[in-house]
Write a structure and sequence with these properties.
Layout: H1 2-16, H2 22-27, E1 33-37, H3 41-54, E2 58-63, E3 68-73, E4 82-90, E5 96-104, H4 115-127
Antiparallel strand pairs: 1-5, 2-3, 3-4, 4-5
Helix pairs in contact: 3-4
Length: 128
């Protein structure tokens, strides 16, 4: 019996140690994929919020002054979900940098979607 409890405990630690949260996504700012747009911040910000929503993600919070959009995708038949952070930063009057950080809720979930590609594809289309 003690062996079973030890095995279950060890497996729980392995599974739960790879979990991500929206707070963890914020902390990962600077490690995602970046793209530079030759558009002013105001245009890019509004189109980025719309893009995240149109991709089907649940927008949890937006902070325009910090340039942060936090979103999540819930559990599905193929995934335990994903946490996504999009960071929009003005780079002068006519350029804006967008960074997308996409993390699996559970690190062992190999079927989780990487939202970086879809968000940038849609944002590129909106901003062309």
């Amino acid at each position: 019996m003690l062996k079973k409890i030890a095995v279950i405990g060890a497996l729980s630690i392995v599974v739960l140690s790879g979990c991500s949260t929206l707070s963890g996504v914020k902390d990962a700012k600077g490690s995602g994929t970046n793209r530079l747009y030759n558009k002013p911040f105001e245009n890019v910000w509004s189109e980025t919020v719309g893009t995240v929503q149109s991709c089907g993600l649940n927008v949890v919070s937006t902070d325009k002054t910090k340039g942060e959009i936090m979103a999540e995708n819930g559990m599905s038949a193929f995934s335990y979900g994903e946490n996504v952070g999009v960071f929009v930063k003005p780079m002068g009057e006519a350029q804006t940098q967008v960074e997308v950080v996409s993390k699996r809720v559970l690190a062992t979930n190999v079927m989780a979607k990487d939202w970086e590609i879809e968000i940038f594809r849609n944002l590129d289309f909106r901003l062309r």
